[in-house]
Amino acid sequence: MPHRIDIQPAGLHFEQRPSQSLLQSALTQSIRLPNFCRNGSCRTCMCMLVSGTVSYQIEWPGLTREEKKEGWILPCVAEAQSDLVLDVPDAVDLKK
Ligand code: FES
C-alpha cells in the first residue's frame, strides 16, 4: 500500500510515489507545495511534519539538528516512510 500524505489545514491528500520526493509526488497528483530550488538547500519548501516518518534522498538536507527534532522537513528531498500528516498552509489544489 502506498503511503498516504494528508495536508493540513486545507484537507488535501496524495500518495507517496516510488522514489519520488514528496514535492514531486504531490505535483504529479495536482497539489502544489511551496518550492524553489528542489534540491534541499533554499528551505522554501520547509514545513512541519505533524505525524509520520520521512527519509531523505540526500545526505545533508538544509535543516539543523534542532529543526529536525522540532519536526521540520524539506519535502523537495524527502520521501514518506509511513503515512504522514503535514502542515502546509500554502498548499494549492491545482484541480480547482
Ligand atoms: S525547494 Fe528548496 S529546499 Fe526544498
Task: Explain how this protein is built.
With 96 residues, the protein is an alpha+beta fold. It is built from 2 helices and 9 strands; from the N terminus they run ββαβββαββββ. It has one domain: Ubiquitin-like (UB roll) (Roll). The strands form 3 sheets. The protein has a 5-stranded mixed beta sheet. The chain has a two-stranded antiparallel ribbon with strand order 3-9. It starts with a strand and ends with a strand. The model has no long low-confidence stretch (mean pLDDT 97). The chain binds FE2/S2 (inorganic) cluster. Residues 35-38, 40-45, 62, 74, 76 line the site of FE2/S2 (inorganic) cluster.
Topology:
Elements: E1 4-8, E2 12-15, H1 22-28, E3 31-32, E4 47-51, E5 54-56, H2 65-70, E6 72-73, E7 78-80, E8 84-87, E9 92-93
Parallel strand pairs: 1-8
Antiparallel strand pairs: 1-2, 3-9, 4-6, 4-8, 5-7
Bound molecules: FE2/S2 (inorganic) cluster (FES).
Residues 35-38, 40-45, 62, 74, 76 line the site of FE2/S2 (inorganic) cluster.
What name is given to the CATH topology? Ubiquitin-like (UB roll)
Reported CATH architecture: Roll
What's the total number of strands? 9
Strand content: 25-35%
Bound molecules: FE2/S2 (inorganic) cluster
Mean pLDDT: 97
Name the structural class.
alpha+beta
Ends apart, CA distance between termini: 27 Å
CATH fourth-tier homologous superfamily? Beta-grasp domain
Count of helical regions: 2
Q: Pick out the low-confidence regions.
A: none
Major beta sheet summary: 5 strands, mixed
**Percent of residues in helices:** 10-25%
Q: Give the overall shape, derived from the CA principal axes.
A: globular
Number of domains: 1
